[in-house]
Design a protein that fits this description.
Blueprint lengths: L1 H17 L12 H21 L5 E2 L2 E2 L2 H6 L4 H27 L4 H13 L3 H11 L2 H17 L6 H24 L2 H31 L4 H60 L2
Antiparallel strand pairs: 1-2
Helix pairs in contact: 2-4, 4-9, 4-10, 5-6, 5-10, 6-7, 7-8, 7-10, 8-10, 9-10
Length: 280
């Protein structure tokens, strides 16, 4: 009987030290390759069938801005694809990060949890996490469950219990943060390369314009050059516009992620400090 009891006690101690209530989330991210492919198809189709519609041309020349954009060359559909990709991932990040922010103010949520923990009401703190429904609430909830387990644990000392709670918070954080940062690499990459691709299209267009200038004579030469430069600059406009949107939205999202990360850090500090002071 004594040996059996000892074995059970050892097993429970090991579970208390190594066990975790944090569950791995589905890390599938099919949108990261489906979206660019769809955007490429849509971009090429828009270039060929909308910009390239016969109504946009008179005598083989662009009669409006769509026709002249079509004459900007093969770089135009690439830039349209990049712009559509940015729009798709901006919408996707808005929805994901908006959900991660949860309901209400993160600062108010942390204060409410601190109040309940100060009064040793862990269940009320857990209810606040359910109401928050965001990443901070998820991390806090995982920590609070371990917090509640440690209150009734008689095998570990206070310092070990605090470390166990801290580990639980770190594991929950490690699962939340990658979800917040997913697909931001597309925005940062496009922000860097869109302008360069636009300039490449402009250079190609300028080469074509000056080549046609050499084949023209008289007043028509200046007209051909001006038209060629106008067509080439559509590439620059698309590239700069796409890059500007990417940079702005990337900074918006990183700022929001920073606020969530700060709330998570504050939550972990709240749990460990509360336990250390209330359950010495």
């Amino acid at each position: 009987m004594a040996e059996t009891k000892s074995t059970v006690t050892a097993a429970s101690t090991t579970a208390a030290k190594a066990g975790t209530s944090v569950q791995a989330k589905n890390s599938g991210n099919s949108i990261s390759w489906i979206a660019p492919v769809i955007c490429l198809i849509v971009g090429v189709s828009f270039y060929a069938f909308v910009l390239g519609a016969s109504s946009n041309f008179v005598n083989g020349k662009g009669a409006n801005w769509m026709g002249r954009m079509h004459e900007g060359g093969p770089i135009v559909p690439i830039l349209i694809t990049l712009l559509l990709t940015v729009i798709v991932f901006v919408i996707e990040r808005f929805l994901t990060i908006g959900k991660a922010l949860g309901k209400g103010s993160i600062a108010d949520f942390v204060r409410k949890v601190q109040y309940h923990l100060a009064n040793k009401n862990v269940d009320a703190a857990l209810q606040e996490c359910d109401k928050q429904q965001g990443s901070v609430g998820n991390v806090m909830k995982a920590g609070l469950r371990k917090y509640k387990d440690m209150i009734g644990n008689s095998e570990l000392d206070t310092e070990q219990k605090v470390l166990t709670i801290q580990k639980e918070v770190e594991e929950a954080t490690a699962l939340e943060l990658p979800m917040l940062e997913k697909n931001l690499v597309f925005l940062s990459t496009i922000a860097s390369v869109a302008t360069l691709i636009g300039l490449l299209g402009t250079v190609i267009g300028m080469i074509t314009a000056f080549a046609s200038l050499g084949d023209s004579a008289g007043s028509s030469a200046a007209n051909e050059l001006a038209k060629g430069i106008s067509e080439a600059l559509y590439n620059t406009a698309l590239g700069i516009g796409t890059s500007a949107i990417s940079i702005i939205m990337y900074n918006v999202f990183t700022t929001r992620i920073d606020s969530i990360t700060y709330g998570i850090d504050e939550s972990g500090f709240t749990l460990t400090q509360s336990f250390a002071s209330n359950y010495k």
